[in-house]
Amino acid sequence: MASQEVLNAMEPLIYERDRQEFSLGDALDMKTGLILAVLTFLALQSGELIHSGLPLFQRIVQYISIGSLVLGGILAALELRPANYDREATPEKYLDWLEKQEVAGNPELIARTLANGRLTRAMERVRSNLAVNKRKSQFMTASFIFALMSFGANIVTLFIRLVS
Q1: Is 2 within 8 Å of 10 (Cβ atoms)?
Q2: Could you identify which of 29, 63, 82, 128 might form a hypothetical disulfide with 86, taking C-beta atoms 3.0 to 4.6 angstroms apart as the criterion?
Q3: Is the whole-model pTM more than 0.90?
Q4: What is the DSSP string of 93-137?
């Protein structure tokens, strides 16, 4: 573990990163929601294209598009599933914890113990929430890639129809 001086210097950075990791999950969910809307539009477009009587090559391209849409939708749903983020403890938990630390009667020791305990927990939360956000980000990125594949397939199909 780092020295007390180093931890004191890093304290604002650790708490800021803790807040950032906690709020990043919401941003990832918002972006995935937009990707899901795009996937829905592309699915409607692919459905219309397939039912319009396409030649074999264009139908194959649309099947690729639909496969990409299905995989992208599954990955978006996995990203959007509720995640358990680690959060700051309640004041009652800190009170219970401080009582077990045998620091009663020494206000300076109580304050230092509480500050050190909160900082240690903040570093643990950063690690824990970073892992959750990394997983969510990977699902969102993969969903985006499949949305791009479907978009590309639909553009190819529409281009071929326009030039034919």
Answers
A1: yes
A2: 128
A3: no
A4: HHHHHHHHTT-TT-HHHHHHHHHHHHHHHHHHHHHHHHHHHHHHH
